[in-house]
């Protein structure tokens, strides 16, 4: 990875953007995961495949929906605390983001960090190369003192790259409550992997959604306008496009339910009738019974005590926690535990 030039503003946009492909196996993984998931007794598909170019743009639309409170809550905390958060980063620290998407919220912290020192190096890591390049170029057009090393990769491949850059001081962002897509043990294991990339002076900012009523949670993941439904069903369209599937999207529907016992919202694509689907490139025929679902995503919610236990299990300590005005959502600043 390159470091910012002494005067980033003297460089062109192309000179200030480096795009790294850290995981070239994603297409092959998609095919093998689709085969495995659709032939399982309980059908499932990994949620990371929701975020192709079309899915990424649909998710950005979800973030603007009235029911989807998470983005507004996180933005409100960032707007109030950005300078305080930026002040915890060591001088010259890079801003690293896991699952950067459009980087809309990130601009608040970019502004705050540029107020402290220039230039700034930003390292967004995202599975969608198209969204990554689009958002990076938009940022470079607006910030003359920014240099970007954009990493097109699934999270774990991105972490492997970061481990090779341990000498780089950094403030790591994991926003949007993306930690909720992991089971609780897997979330702790993944955060321990992030911890392994951190030096003592590095900090990690994690957005984590809080437990709340069924009504609020199910509306957030099954909006009245049906945008989340299109986002979920786009996964079938992706199989049709990339693997020669013949899914009839009208024969399936999106469903989101809150599981109180497990503390998670569960998203499925549900077959409306008994039907057979062919995926030509996999030479695969799949039979769906009426009411049978494909499990596509979990979104775990946390209590404050559960967040504390998560951090400890990952070898991290919470230095500060901020909540939005309605106490629906949390931002948590974490540091590596002392040896």
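Q: What amino acid sequence fits the structure above?
A:
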């Amino acid at each position: 990875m390159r470091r910012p030039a002494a005067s980033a503003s003297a460089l062109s946009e192309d000179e200030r953007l480096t795009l790294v492909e850290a995981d070239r196996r994603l297409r092959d993984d998609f095919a093998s995961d689709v085969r495995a998931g659709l032939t399982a007794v309980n059908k499932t598909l990994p949620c990371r495949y929701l975020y192709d170019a079309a899915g990424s743009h649909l998710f950005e639309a979800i973030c603007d929906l009235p029911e989807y409170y998470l983005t507004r809550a996180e933005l409100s905390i960032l707007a109030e605390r950005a300078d305080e958060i930026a002040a915890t980063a060591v001088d010259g620290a890079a801003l690293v983001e896991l699952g950067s998407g459009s980087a809309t919220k990130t601009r608040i912290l970019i502004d705050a960090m540029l107020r402290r020192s220039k230039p700034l190096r930003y390292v967004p890591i995202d599975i969608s190369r198209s969204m990554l390049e689009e958002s990076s170029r938009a940022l470079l057009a607006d910030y003359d003192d920014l240099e970007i090393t954009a990493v097109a990769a699934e999270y774990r491949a991105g972490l492997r790259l970061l481990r090779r850059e341990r000498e780089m001081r950094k403030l790591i962002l994991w926003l949007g409550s993306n930690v909720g897509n992991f089971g609780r043990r897997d979330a702790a294991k993944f955060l321990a992997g992030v911890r392994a990339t951190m030096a003592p002076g590095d900090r990690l900012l994690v957005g984590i959604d809080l437990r709340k009523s069924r009504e609020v949670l199910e509306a957030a993941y099954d909006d009245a306008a049906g945008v989340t439904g299109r986002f979920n069903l786009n996964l079938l369209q992706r199989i049709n496009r990339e693997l020669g599937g013949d899914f009839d999207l009208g024969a399936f529907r999106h469903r989101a339910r809150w599981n109180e016992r497990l503390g998670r919202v569960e998203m499925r694509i549900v077959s409306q009738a008994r039907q057979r689907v062919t995926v030509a490139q996999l030479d695969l025929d799949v039979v769906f019974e009426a009411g049978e679902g494909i499990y596509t995503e979990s979104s775990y919610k946390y209590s404050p005590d559960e967040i504390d236990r998560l951090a400890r299990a990952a070898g991290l300590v919470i230095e500060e926690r901020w909540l939005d005005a309605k106490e629906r959502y949390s931002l948590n600043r974490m540091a590596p535990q002392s040896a």
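Q: And what stands out in the fold?
A: Residues 41-62+213-300 form one domain.
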